[in-house]
Amino acid sequence: MNVIRHYALKINGEETPVEYDDGAPLLFVLRDALGLTGTHYGCGTESCGACRVEVDGKPVFACTFPAEAAEGCDIRTIEGVPEDDPVLRAFVAEQAGQCAYCIPGIIMTARMLLRDTPDPSRSDVAAALTPHLCRCGAHVRIVAAVLRAAKAGAGA
């Protein structure tokens, strides 16, 4: 029998009360209860990065991050990224996504990288994206997009 819990979450700048199973990972609350389906389920074991979101300015794997641990935190998902964001524009310009299943998590990680390291080297980008798996093999274009966003001042 599932116990329902009341969560008070701040998602993309909005206070969001929600009811969902106690002990649920943040990913399930985002996708199932709130309809924020831009954050993807890939593996459920922190091995692919498709579920990456920002919690209090840090990247987390939403597939294993307990929703109750996110209460009182500032959560940002891909839906909270403005359409004119330099990282998003760079990903389009570089045609960085093929199937694009991995791209929302990668974009979230790239934005945090550029915030903390506005002028990253190629190896900085590769290290930051290590937790992400792109099964299409678009890694070269993804790295190019992050470097292009950095040149456009995305981290400034």
TrEMBL record:
<dbReference type="GO" id="GO:0051537">
    <property type="term" value="F:2 iron, 2 sulfur cluster binding"/>
</dbReference>
<dbReference type="GO" id="GO:0016491">
    <property type="term" value="F:oxidoreductase activity"/>
</dbReference>
<dbReference type="InterPro" id="IPR012675">
    <property type="entry name" value="Beta-grasp_dom_sf"/>
</dbReference>
<dbReference type="InterPro" id="IPR002888">
    <property type="entry name" value="2Fe-2S-bd"/>
</dbReference>
<protein>
    <submittedName>
        <fullName>2Fe-2S iron-sulfur cluster binding domain-containing protein</fullName>
    </submittedName>
</protein>
<dbReference type="Pfam" id="PF00111">
    <property type="entry name" value="Fer2"/>
</dbReference>
<dbReference type="InterPro" id="IPR001041">
    <property type="entry name" value="2Fe-2S_ferredoxin-type"/>
</dbReference>
<dbReference type="GO" id="GO:0046872">
    <property type="term" value="F:metal ion binding"/>
</dbReference>
<dbReference type="InterPro" id="IPR036010">
    <property type="entry name" value="2Fe-2S_ferredoxin-like_sf"/>
</dbReference>
<keyword id="KW-0479">Metal-binding</keyword>
<dbReference type="Pfam" id="PF01799">
    <property type="entry name" value="Fer2_2"/>
</dbReference>
<keyword id="KW-0001">2Fe-2S</keyword>
<keyword id="KW-0408">Iron</keyword>
<dbReference type="InterPro" id="IPR036884">
    <property type="entry name" value="2Fe-2S-bd_dom_sf"/>
</dbReference>
<feature type="domain" description="2Fe-2S ferredoxin-type">
    <location>
        <begin position="5"/>
        <end position="81"/>
    </location>
</feature>
<dbReference type="InterPro" id="IPR051452">
    <property type="entry name" value="Diverse_Oxidoreductases"/>
</dbReference>
<keyword id="KW-0411">Iron-sulfur</keyword>
